[in-house]
Design goal:
Order of helices and strands: HEEHEEHHEEEH
Distance between the termini: 36 Å
Shape: elongated
Largest sheet: 5 strands, antiparallel
Number of helices: 5
Helix content: 25-40%
CATH topology of the largest domain: Beta-Lactamase
CATH class of the largest domain: Alpha Beta
Strand content: 25-35%
CATH superfamily of the largest domain: GAF domain
Number of domains: 2
Number of strands: 7
Strand order of the largest sheet: 4-3-7-6-5
Structural class: alpha+beta
Length: 177
C-alpha cells in the first residue's frame, strides 16, 4: 500500500478530512459515495463506490448484444471508468479512466446526439472522431454513468437513439429496485 505521508486527526464527531490532493488524484467529488472496509491487519480501507460496478456483468452482456445488433461501438461507464465496451474499441478502452471532457456529459443529465462529425476525448490519451449518442444513467436523481454509441463513419439513426434510451431505462429501473 502506498503511503502519502499525510496525517489527519479525527474530530469529536468521528470525521476525518480526505486531503484535496488525494481527492483530486482519485477523482472524489462532493456527494460521492465511499465504501469502508477493514482488513485482517486492522487497516481501514476507503474505496469509491460504483452502483454500476455491482452489475458490470449485465453491462458487459448489454454492450455485446447492442454491438451485435447495431454493429456500432458501445461504451458503458460509471462516473470514473469504462466498465463495458464492445466493438473496435474494446481492447484499447476496456477498464480505462474516462476523460474530464466526457465527465461533463455526466453533469448535463440529458441524451446528447452529436450528429455532426465530432472530435471527442473518451479516455485521456486519445481523441475519437465520429458520431456519438451519449445517454446518462440516472438513479435516484444521481448520474452514475453513461452509455455511448459511437460510429466512425456513419451518422447515427433514430433507431440507435431509441435503443440507447431503452438500455438506459433498463439500468435505471434495475438499480432503483
Amino acid at each position: 500500500m502506498k503511503s502519502t505521508g499525510v496525517i489527519r486527526r479525527i474530530d469529536e464527531l468521528g470525521r476525518i478530512v480526505i486531503p484535496k490532493e488525494i481527492r483530486k488524484t482519485l477523482r472524489i467529488h462532493d456527494g460521492d459515495s465511499l465504501e469502508i472496509f477493514t482488513d485482517d491487519r486492522e487497516n481501514i480501507i476507503l474505496s469509491k463506490f460504483s452502483s454500476l460496478g455491482k452489475i458490470s456483468d449485465y453491462a458487459i452482456n448489454f454492450s455485446k448484444t447492442i454491438y451485435k445488433f447495431l454493429k456500432k461501438d458501445v461504451i458503458i461507464t460509471d462516473t470514473d471508468r469504462i466498465i463495458a465496451v464492445d466493438g473496435n474499441l474494446k481492447k484499447k478502452y476496456d477498464n480505462k479512466e474516462i476523460s474530464s471532457e466526457l465527465s461533463k456529459y455526466l453533469k448535463t443529465r440529458e441524451l446528447t446526439n452529436l450528429d455532426e462529425l465530432t472530435n471527442l476525448k473518451i479516455i485521456n490519451d486519445e481523441v475519437l472522431e465520429g458520431y456519438f449518442i451519449i445517454s446518462p444513467i440516472i438513479v435516484e436523481s444521481d448520474t452514475i454513468g453513461l452509455i455511448i454509441i459511437y460510429s466512425k463513419d456513419d451518422k447515427l439513426m433514430e433507431m440507435d437513439s431509441k435503443i440507447i434510451q431503452f438500455v438506459t431505462s433498463f439500468f435505471t429501473k434495475y438499480l432503483e429496485d
